[in-house]
Amino acid sequence: GGHAPVLRTRDFWESFSEPGTGGTGSAFPGIRAAARFKPLASPPDGAAAAMAPPYVLESFRTALAAALFASERLNVTVSEADAQRALVSHELPGRFQILEGKQGSDVIVLDGAHTVLSARALVRALKESYLDRGYGVAFVVGMAHDKEAGGFMAELAAARPARVVCTTAGAARSLAPEDLLQAARGAGLPATAAPSFPEAVERSL
Q1: pLDDT tens, 96-105?
Q2: For the CA atoms of 151, 122, 6, 86, what is the dihedral angle to 10 degrees?
Q3: Is the N or the C terminus of the chain less surrounded, counting Cβ atoms within 10 Å?
Q4: Which domain CATH number covers 154?
């Protein structure tokens, strides 16, 4: 009949301190050992994850917090070396996932952004990883009909894309490409529509 504990990951990382320094980690009995992982809030030097945008690292920290919390109760040890290996090798499909690309050629990035805030985070990540290094950008967008298409497109405009290709999200809840196109043009974007995702990708390149 009890309730499962709730950990807000940002508070989790910011509240822990070494024993005796007054941190609030004692609110979660048996989990203070997680304090030694706090440096992983930033990727270690040389890690493949060093180029990952902040929201991907936030997802990693959420998973690590859950693993540490569970390990205390399952009597399983999660070492710092385990955490480092996971940081370097972890994959989150659809979260700033680079499908292909070599220096000097097109790079395709898959991301599941579908809200105004996630679109803003995606644009920030693209700026840091690509746009500030001289890359241009084109977007292929498909989304559900219950999402805020106008606000989403307004956030994408901050990236100054060369083009936006609107298409279906491939589901029954998908917003029609023509309706998405209207939202894109309403945000001042140079947009067209394509009936399928493969065709939309071809038009974007």
Answers
A1: 887 765 455 6
A2: 160
A3: N
A4: 3.90.190.20
Question: Which of 69-83, 139-153, 160-174 has the highest average model confidence (pLDDT)?
Answer: 139-153
Pairing relationship of beta strands 97-100 and 108-110 according to DSSP bridges? antiparallel
Whose tokens are 């097109």? That residue is 106
Claim to verify: residue 107 and residue 183 sit in the same structural domain: yes
Rounded Cα distance, 91 and 200, in Å: 25
Residues present in the chain in total = 205
| Token code pair at residue 25 | 């980690």
pTM given for the model:
0.65
Please answer whether residues 175 and 144 qualify as being in contact, where contact means their C-beta atoms are separated by less than 8 angstroms.
yes
Range of the domain at 186: 97-204
N-to-C CA span, the chain: 55
pLDDT digits (tens, 9 = 90+) for 30-47: 333 333 333 333 333 433
